[in-house]
Automatic annotation (TrEMBL):
This is UPF0311 protein HNV11_08730. It comes from the Bacteria. Belongs to the UPF0311 family. It comes from Spirosoma taeanense. Pfam families: DUF3237.
Amino acid sequence: MLQEFAFELRVEVAAIEEMGQTAKGIRRVIPITGGTFEGPAIQGHIVAGGYDWQIGRSDGVTEVEARYLLRTHDGSLITIINQGLRHGPPEVMQRLAKGELVDPSDYYFRSIPVFETADPRYDWLTRSVFIATGIRQPSQVLIRVYRLL
């Protein structure tokens, strides 16, 4: 499968708000407070106000669904819904939960971002399938987005 690098997001996040055990698992909500993104054909900032909704499953996998808004350097708005999975050995996941820096090769963090925009200059985002890799850092998440060719 061929892919090309599209852009990298540096998503700034606030402290985790843990709701506790629900019927689906342990629910966590992480406010998105800003950030930036940049790639060969796009750049801009992340608008504060989005959220990353997570469910910690009983098998140790975290289901991630982040929804937020991108504003390009030229003023266009793009929504992103990014769904994925994160998991690893329990001791690694505990270190991540404590806010420690963890080598990204020690855990799995992949997602499928979907975009929406009214600006035809960026409709290439709505005409392809994308995959992404994630790295969780203490106050931000780095997401590298690739377009499948």
